[in-house]
């Protein structure tokens, strides 16, 4: 496997991203991955590329693998004229669901500061947004809906209260709800569906909003959609298999489509998620289980020329993760990549240097049709067992459109956030 070399571009500074900017061209959606949720360099390089996409190619928002209510709070804050939220670090305390470090870290704080400063130079309607794509925030989204409809008067109020009351016996623990519906026929599917329908009717019958009011109404409907899909997700979770994963990534794709529609026909989106979400699932072993992801769904919906996926990976270093679901985070070693893996091949060729690869330049090389083991580290990680479950067989030339390889990486820098009592259930420890 080490008998051939691959065409690469040096990767030392943000200026070296010229090649990937050129390759992105006029793509409408740029998906930026990561091989772990706890690596400093993945966040800083995604930030560098995102800044250039915003400044040079007119991208209007960043959407991340985070909960809608928390991210929308950040979105509203960075669009304000004055930073009345205090510091970015204070603002990011809103991310109190385990794993808090994914978005509550100093690397994201630096991005938030930049976005707020950048937005001050733009008209309110053109300010860059920051949104969450995920589906975990069932209880938080229900609470947001109740607050919204209580200010609107009649209409969706009764439906929202009925949905809230349906989940109330389970407190704020969706996992308890999932365990309950596994043994009895009672569930809350009808209640959350009716709530979404009622809210949509109410919003259609109101005067067409503009500016911030339009985005506030959008957020209310999005919270109702989160409740519908979260109920489906937690119910599917009990069945196992790919069902809950597909509900989750289907929700992410639906949210992305809604955000693009909100921002207009010429809108452009930057997505930050794990490689396992943004790298086309059809070119991994996920396809054997009929597992899909947002990378696949975006290509299918918008066309491959409109979607550009950038994978990330490294050879060795350190990472922030927990030894089990819900455990305190730790700085853990990332051992040398296993022999014969994609990361091992690049380390061997590049002799410790970082590099950018473009899939279009892999044509005619052995890598064009060869499947490689490709490392994936999740928020749950045990380095001593890495070889048994942290590598995803991937046709790299098709899974991504570009790949950023950082030979030696270090753990990111978490904020010290108080963790909320309940966390989403542990479904895929190698990614989540």
From TrEMBL:
A Pfam family annotated for this UniProt entry: Erythro_esteras
InterPro entries the UniProt entry points to: Emycin_Estase, Hydrolase/PRTase-associated, UCP036794_erythomycin
Gene3D superfamilies (UniProt xref): Biosynthetic Protein domain, EreA-like (biosynthetic domain), EreA-like, domain 2
Domain of life: Bacteria
GO biological process: response to antibiotic
Full protein name: Erythromycin esterase family protein
Species this chain originates from: Hymenobacter cellulosilyticus
Origin organism lineage: Bacteria, Pseudomonadati, Bacteroidota, Cytophagia, Cytophagales
């Amino acid at each position: 496997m080490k008998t051939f070399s691959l065409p690469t571009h040096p990767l030392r500074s943000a200026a070296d991203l010229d090649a990937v900017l050129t390759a992105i061209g006029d793509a409408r959606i740029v998906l930026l991955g990561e091989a772990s949720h706890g690596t400093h360099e993945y966040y800083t390089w995604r930030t560098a590329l995102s800044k250039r996409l915003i400044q040079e190619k007119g991208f209007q928002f960043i959407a991340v693998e985070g909960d809608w209510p928390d991210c929308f709070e950040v979105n509203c804050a960075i669009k304000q004229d004055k930073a009345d939220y205090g510091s970015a670090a204070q603002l990011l305390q809103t991310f109190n669901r385990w794993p808090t470090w994914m978005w509550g870290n100093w690397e994201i704080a630096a991005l938030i500061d930049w976005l707020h400063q950048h937005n001050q130079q733009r008209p309110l309607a053109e300010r860059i947004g920051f949104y969450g794509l995920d589906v975990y925030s069932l209880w938080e989204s229900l609470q947001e809906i109740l607050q919204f409809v209580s200010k609107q008067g009649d209409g969706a109020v009764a439906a929202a209260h009925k949905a809230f009351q349906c989940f109330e016996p389970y407190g704020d623990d969706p996992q308890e709800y999932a365990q309950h519906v596994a043994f009895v026929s009672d569930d809350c599917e009808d209640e959350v569906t009716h709530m979404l329908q009622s809210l949509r009717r109410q919003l259609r019958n109101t005067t067409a909003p503009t500016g911030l009011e339009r985005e506030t109404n959008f957020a209310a409907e999005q919270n109702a959609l989160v409740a519908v899909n979260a109920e489906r997700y937690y119910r599917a979770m009990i069945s196992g298999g790919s069902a809950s994963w597909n509900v989750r990534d289907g929700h992410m794709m639906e949210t992305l489509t809604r955000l693009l529609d909100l921002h207009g026909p010429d809108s452009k989106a930057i997505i930050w998620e794990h490689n396992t979400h943004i790298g086309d699932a059809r070119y991994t072993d996920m396809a054997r289980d009929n597992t899909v992801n947002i990378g696949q769904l975006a290509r299918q919906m918008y066309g491959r020329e409109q979607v550009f996926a950038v994978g990330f990976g490294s050879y060795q270093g350190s990472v922030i993760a927990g030894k089990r679901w819900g455990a305190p985070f730790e700085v853990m070693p990332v051992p040398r990549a296993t022999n014969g893996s994609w990361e091992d091949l690049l380390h061997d060729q590049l002799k410790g240097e970082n590099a950018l690869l473009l899939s279009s330049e892999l044509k005619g090389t052995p890598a064009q049709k060869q499947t490689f083991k490709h490392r994936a580290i999740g928020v749950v990680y045990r380095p001593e067992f890495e070889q048994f479950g942290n590598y995803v067989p991937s046709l790299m030339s098709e899974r991504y459109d570009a790949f950023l390889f950082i030979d030696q990486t270090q753990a990111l820098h978490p904020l010290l956030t108080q963790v909320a009592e309940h966390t989403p259930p542990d479904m895929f420890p190698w990614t989540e």
